[in-house]
Each structure stands twice: as C-alpha cells, then as structure tokens.
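Entry type: protein chain
Record version: 2
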Amino acid sequence: MKKYYKIYEAISRNNSKIYNFKTEALFQVLFSKISYFFTPIFIIFKITPNTITFMNFIVSIFSIILILNGKGSFLEYGILLYLVYRIFDFCDGAVARHFKQSTFYGRFIDGLADIFLNSFLILSLAFYSFQIFESLPLLIFGCVTGILTSFDTFIYDRYSALARWSNSENRIKVLPYIKKTFMPKSTNLYSDLITILLVVMPFLKFNESIHYTNLFLFFSIFTVSAFQNIIIHLYFAQTNLKLQAKVKNRAKTQKKH
C-alpha cells in the first residue's frame, strides 16, 4: 500500500500541473483526478501505455454496442462505460510520463481511439433515438452531427500538421493548436455541457418530450462546436499558411537514381 500511495502522490502532483481548472473543462479535470486512483495499479503491474489504450478502445466498443441496444438498462451501462473510458483515457498518458515512455505512436493511437468513440457515440445515439422516437429528422440530425464531428477532427489535425510543416520550412512559429489559444472557454463549456447532457440522459427516459429535447441539445452542441472549430481553422489557415511551400524537383530525384 505504501508503494501505491507514493505513486498516487507523484501522479496527482505531476498531473495537476497539466490538468487544472484554469485551462481545462470542469469534467476533464474531474476525470483526471479520478484517474489518479487507477493509474498506480497500472504502474505497479507494469502495464504499458499502449496496452491501456487498447483496453480502453475495447471499452469504447462495448459502450457503443450497449447504446445501440439502448432499450431497458443498456443505455445506462453504455454511458457508464463511456465514463470509464473518459477516466482511463488519462491513465495511459500518466503511465507513459511515469516510465518516460511517451511516443508519437502512443499519441497517434490514443487520438484514433478518441475520434472513434466520439463519432460512433453520436451515431449510436442517433440510431438509439430512432428506436425510441421513430423520428427520422432526429436520426438524420444525429448522423450529420457524427460526420461533422469527424470532419472537425480531420481539419484540426490537418491544420496542425501543415502549421508544423510550415514552421519547419519557413523557420516561423505558427501555433499549431487553435483550440487552445482561440476561444478556449467556449470549447471547455461545450465539453462540459455535452458531458452533463449525456450523464442525465438515462434519468430522462421516462419523460418522452424532455428525453427528446435532451438528445436534440446533445446533437446541437456537438454541431455548433464543430462548425465553430471548422470556421476558425479555415480563417487561421488562410492567414497563417500563405507562405511558400517547397516543391520537390522530381526530375532531379529520378536522375540521381
């Protein structure tokens, strides 16, 4: 137990500098603090960060399957697993930092797992809503929201990659992450509202009109957030990525071979 508490104190001390109420959404900080109780267990049993990410990916699959079969208590269990995913999502990074095993591959697969869960969570709730309300407009709205969310992540990663590339070629310092520097409070607010709407969802099943409104608001906030981020990234791309890009001379390359 002494080893557990020693690791717990080290993890909580180090992570509090990364995740705090000044920069992160309320529930992000809350989930990170809950993860401190589980991270020492992974460290003691020497479970690698990528293994934790894979385990969490399996959790996300079961979460989506349960929500798709959301009648009865399946919705509650699906959302519970989603919350487990959110908590364990902090564990792999904390373990990587503890063992000094942080890699870009780890960040890559962790990001893929997040994209998968966010997109398919929305799509599963869209099909769940159709089972419950048989509302084609709500189903279409949910599906469009899921696609928009995926595209939002794509444009975010694309801008970040090109900004870094431009920085390397032109020796400039364009910030690659717009979300962290432009309107971060609204981004954090969207994140908290989405979490609240999801957590209260099982408790609203017995009131059809409120349950419908809750799902509609859930899709709406995701949609507003996606549109906001897409527009912001398009604006900053036009402003920051106008510098000349180097063109490889394929003819010279072929002659060398």
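Comment: Residues 156 and 246 are 23 Å apart (CA to CA).
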